[in-house]
Specification:
By secondary structure, the protein is an alpha+beta fold. It has a single domain, classed as Neuraminidase, CATH 2.120.10.30. It is built from three helices and 26 strands.
Length: 419
């Protein structure tokens, strides 16, 4: 027996140093990915801890406003800060488009989390953007730009290609639906088809019951109705999709009735004012419709957002207060709503910023989950996505490797048994 040798089966698998090293390397990579994911989760938790007090310890009064973030310019350099914001509207992809008095030939583009993405200018040298004020984004992505001094609405494609113009005397607001365009002007508002052909004109300049004095706010409801803010007459009105008046009400003392007496500016409250006391508006200067179909009006002088029932015009509530802290306003001039994230973009003019805020009850029941996901993806949760994706890839790769090894081992065992 001393000279006897035992031969091992030629197909027997044997552990190798190479396999051990691969498993150790995989375990190390997996551990690093888990640590990165944990770090991203911690950063998310830290970012979501919004302070409720100002630096001096005084409770911050926002009257129901939930602040999300603010945008102050294209960078933190002094030269890149906003001068006086005029409008901030969400694009169809959730990004934000801003006009500002310091940028008279372009629209500024920001991501939902406030990063500057660039500026949009006309590619046609003969048709540059000229002093844009209010803007709207159509369902096809086209921009409708109020160029008040040129008495026109300038249409621009997302790539800067000129989409034409249509004439409207002194346009100061614009809204776009799937098949119609509504333009507010100094003397009333007009409704046009998707190609800019007039379908109807409402009003004339003045203080009368059927007259208007600067329609700074106009918006379509989900049922095709049109809501109008008659700024200096301090009136709101709602029209059915066929043009019939649904309701109209005076919401406070009209600014165009103010007079100077004993060196003091005063305005007598008219007898037809529907809202009384603290419910009155001072200067409704922007208007939008939220996910619940409610009419939301920005009041420049009161620095607040007022919410109205779309069917009756009944005041639901007011939110916001004057100040320079997060969630406070100082002469806000426009408001828009992003249904995909259930938040409002406000041009907070004299604070020289755009604020993204939320108010209670603004989302529809069906869209609440989608809006929550959209807000999360526009915020710090985005930082978690890359390590999470790497972790998922590593797990899938591990499962595939194990499956292939088992298949290979099974094939080798079958081959040995067949021999």
């Amino acid at each position: 027996m001393s000279g006897t040798t035992v031969d091992l089966p030629t197909g027997a698998p044997a552990p190798t140093v190479k396999n051990r090293r691969a498993r150790r390397a995989f375990a190390l990579v997996l551990a690093i990915l888990i640590l990165l994911l944990g770090l991203a989760g911690y950063l998310l938790w830290s970012a979501l801890r919004v302070p409720t007090t100002v630096s001096v310890g005084k409770p911050l009064d926002t009257r129901g406003i939930e602040w999300v973030r603010s945008i102050y310019g294209t960078s933190d350099r002094t030269v890149d800060l906003f001068g006086q914001t005029q409008v901030a509207v969400p694009g169809n992809d959730g990004t934000i488009w801003v006009t500002d008095v310091s940028h008279l030939d372009s629209l500024m583009h920001f991501s939902a989390d406030g990063r500057y993405l660039g500026s949009l200018r006309s590619t046609d040298p003969s048709m540059p953007i000229s002093s844009p004020s209010r803007i709207a984004v159509g369902p096809d992505g086209r921009f409708y730009i109020c160029e008040t001094t040129l008495d026109r609405i300038h249409v621009l494609w997302p790539n800067g290609k000129d989409g034409g113009t249509f004439s409207v005397p002194q346009p100061v607001s614009v809204a776009v639906s799937k098949d119609r365009i509504a333009v507010g002007s100094v003397s009333g508002f007009a409704v046009l088809d998707s190609k800019g052909k007039p379908l109807g004109v409402v009003g004339s300049r003045g203080k009368g019951a059927d007259q208007f004095d600067y329609v700074h706010g106009i918006a379509f409801g989900p049922d095709g109705s049109i809501y109008v803010a008659d700024s200096y007459n301090n009136r709101l009105s709602a029209y059915e999709s066929n043009g019939d008046l649904r309701w109209k009400m005076r919401t406070g003392a009209p600014s165009n009735s103010a007079a100077i007496s004993n060196n003091m500016l005063s305005s007598k409250t008219p007898s037809d004012t529907v809202l009384k006391g603290g419910d009155t508006l001072q200067l409704p200067l922007g208007l939008t419709v939220d996910g619940a179909g409610r009419v939301v009006v920005i009041d420049m002088y009161e620095c607040s957002m007022a919410v109205f029932a779309p069917k009756t015009g009944k005041l639901i509530g007011k939110y916001g207060d004057v100040g320079a802290e997060d969630g406070q306003f100082f002469y806000p001039v426009s408001v828009s709503y992003d249904s995909g994230r259930d938040w409002f973009t406000v041009a907070d003019a004299m604070n020289r910023r755009v604020q993204i805020v939320r108010i209670p009850g603004s989302s529809s029941g069906a869209g609440g989950v989608v809006a929550t996901v959209g807000r999360a993806m526009a915020g710090p949760l985005r930082a978690c996505m890359f390590p999470l994706l790497l972790l998922l890839i590593a797990i899938v790769a591990s499962l595939v490797t194990r499956y292939v090894r088992r298949r290979r081992s099974g094939s080798e065992n079958q081959a040995r048994h067949s021999e």
